Amino acid sequence: MSLDELRTLLARHVRPDMTTAIDGVLISKVEQPPPPSASMSGTVMALIAQGAKRIALGDRVYEYRAGQYLVASVDLPITGHFTEASPEWPALGFGLTLQPAAVAELLLQAAPGDIPPAGSGVPSGLAVSDASDELLDAVIRLLRLLDQPRDRAVLAPLVKREVLWRLITSEQGAVVRQLGLADSSLTHVARAVRWIRDHYMQAFRVEDVAQMSGMSASAFYRNFQAVTAMSPIQFQKQIRLQEARLLLATHPHDVAGVGMRVGYDSPSQFSREYRRQFGAPPSQDAARLRGLPLGGTPALV
């Protein structure tokens, strides 16, 4: 029954831009399975109430459907699409943006023994799990506040904290908890991810980025691969190609110039890698870009 109410609430409050009256809460509705599209994940929890979605990160594929959620603890370049959606049975999803400061605050307030022990190794930046009854209940109570404007300002922050606590103590809690740990391996990788995203046009040495992130080169490479499913150079290429696609939406007749602006010295290499990523050469893909919603809200919801 909880999923039934969740579907009803999501369908009633969905907006074209996915936003809601509660900061950080997103709602999506998809009536036709679109082709796979590349975008950034955001740091978000995405819960599906109806339908199913498939996400690819590097060589890893994640699938989640009604009653399951996916957590992204790092803003990653992904390719994804809904696999089950129709006008009669649209895909419906709930999203909550994850803030490191909010995670850290809950971790500091938790009593000894309240937090499950961390496993060995560095968790992936993405993880899928079944939603517990407690998590579903908290999400539903958060969405009910969209119908209760008088209570929303006071109660929404409290219920959002409860949702976050359910995630922190869940099966995939280690992925979420690392967001709030200043010295976690994921935090070091996230620092490198931000640097590469901000300087994606620049060539770099992995050793230099590792030093900037506070890790040895070998530990950095191993942890970066564990979190992102890509090497740092592969990650940079993904960012370059996604930025190129955004630029082509406004400069469709300047393929060579766009390639140079994102860091490619060779037009032929740019066209070859672009086609491999998006299934069409830049000049052909540019013609269809204006009808696509590029950028904006996280792609997992």
TrEMBL record:
One of its GO terms (molecular function) is DNA-binding transcription factor activity. Keywords: DNA-binding, Transcription, Transcription regulation. It holds the Pfam family AraC_N. SMART domains: HTH_ARAC (SM00342). Residues 279-301 are annotated as: Disordered. PROSITE patterns: HTH_ARAC_FAMILY_1, HTH_ARAC_FAMILY_2. Transmembrane segments: none annotated. It comes from the Bacteria. Residues 190-288 form the HTH araC/xylS-type domain. This is AraC-like DNA-binding protein. It comes from Micromonospora pisi. The lineage of its organism: Bacteria, Bacillati, Actinomycetota, Actinomycetes, Micromonosporales.
